[in-house]
Amino acid sequence: MRVKQHTIKKQVTVSGVGLHTGVISNLTFLPAPPNHGFKFQRIDLEGMPIIDADVDNVVDVSRGTTLEQSGARIFTVEHVLAALVGLEIDNVLMQIDGPEPPIMDGSSIQFVEILESAGVEEQNALRRFFEVPESITYRDPSREVELAALPLDDYRVTVMVDYNSPVLGSQHASITNISQFKSEIASCRTFCFLHELETLYNQNLIKGGDLNNAIVVVDRVVEDSELEHLAKMFNKQKVEVRKEGILNNVELRYKNEPARHKLLDVIGDLALVGRPLKAQILAARPGHAANVAFAKKLKRAWEKIGPTHIPYYDPKLPPVMDINQISNILPHRYPFQLLDKIIYLDDTVVAGVKNVTINEPFFMGHFPNNPVMPGVLQVEAMAQTGGILVLSTVEDPENYWTYFLGIESCKFRKMVLPGDTLVFKCELLAPIRRGIAKMKGEAFVGNTLVCEAVMTASIVRKES
């Protein structure tokens, strides 16, 4: 799995009819900055409201997953989200001029292809995985539905479906690595049973339904008069039934295509957790209602980890900058080189790490019998982190100095001791003008804020 966040290199657009609304829409994927996540924007509505792809925004799961935020809705989002997850893309803004993404052929493959045509770009931020710490389960005994997430340093999904149908029977599908999504899952189309069609039609759904964008399973004898009625419903001259029990001679792409599509839906719905997952997902007879309920349990579990504004640090992942890259930018050297790695960097925010050990030279004279990291050095380390941010705005940072101009509102909230890992976050409070940068700095040990300050710095070219 990719360890850094990714977006697309350029905007791309797909067009088509929505499955349930029957409304033709244009869906445009646009690049987005780190930690943006997946967001939809209804550009056809006043104010162009944004709808976060968040499980807490789900308002309907009757025949697909529907989101609502700020009074705006977006229907049937699961196939689009599955494509993004399957390509390990983290940050995209999706602008749409209608209420529902195009159904395309009923699968995710055409979304995958258009996203690949845009190109994928690595970003200076680590992916914020939710590594499932222990078994998390969801059960609905009335429907014999069960989903489970088991600890795993990867993302694997296994699905079992059983419809008591002579045509489908019991089916299984699985992927052992998310990289298999495109080749094994993305092209698998949505499906329904013949007896559901009339109900969906009468409920004012499947207005955009067509025998080309869904598999219709026929598991009973059908009279000619009913086939004539279906032909009229779908505006076809003729509707037939194959021996396999599939309407209108549609060829299955896989014998277990329905199970594979259910796996696709699981991946799309679990994207609403808000973080890429590291887990083994097991799903028996899943549907959108169960997927969303399970996604909520997963989100509640990772919310217990801590506040989302604290930079995410996983020592197992490679940094954005290691000590050698930092040394090429910052002039500081022993004993004042206080920053070990950079784990996040964008246009306005930087996060860095310092490992505090008993071998720090300052512990020899600063409370030697009660080692506590000096507060002034915490601020210095935080300033060096901010220095990486301001120097990243020039093309040749090695030719600049950074100088402190001021410190405001500095507070030390808890002692920092040997063995602690300090995680710093610095965020620009205003755009850099005339080489002057003002930023808010925070230092954390675990989920605890230990130091904070507002710092002003100047970047000066060396020859001047």
What's the layout of helices and strands?
Layout: E1 4-8, E2 12-17, E3 24-31, E4 38-42, E5 50-52, E6 58-60, E7 66-69, E8 72-74, H1 78-86, E9 92-96, H2 109-118, E10 120-126, E11 130-131, E12 136-140, E13 145-151, E14 155-162, E15 170-175, H3 181-185, E16 191-193, H4 194-202, E17 215-217, H5 224-233, H6 257-270, E18 277-284, H7 288-303, H8 323-329, E19 341-345, E20 349-355, H9 375-391, E21 400-412, E22 421-428, E23 436-445, E24 448-461
Helix pairs in contact: 1-2, 1-6, 6-7
Describe it for me?
It is a single chain. The protein folds into two domains: 4-187 and 258-305, lpxc deacetylase, domain 1 (Ribosomal Protein S5, domain 2); 323-461, Hotdog Thioesterase (Thiol Ester Dehydrase, Chain A, Roll). A hairpin with a 6-residue loop joins strand 2 (12-17) and strand 3. It has helices at residues 78-86, 109-118, 181-185, 194-202, 224-233, 257-270, 288-303, 323-329, 375-391, and strands at residues 4-8, 12-17, 24-31, 38-42, 50-52, 58-60, 66-69, 72-74, 92-96, 120-126, 130-131, 136-140, 145-151, 155-162, 170-175, 191-193, 215-217, 277-284, 341-345, 349-355, 400-412, 421-428, 436-445, 448-461. The chain is built from nine helices and 24 strands. Helix 1 packs across helix 6 and helix 6 (257-270) runs parallel beside helix 7 (288-303). The strands form six sheets. Strands 11, 12, 13, 14, 15 and 18 form a six-stranded mixed β-sheet that branches. The mean pLDDT is 90. By secondary structure, it is of the alpha+beta class.
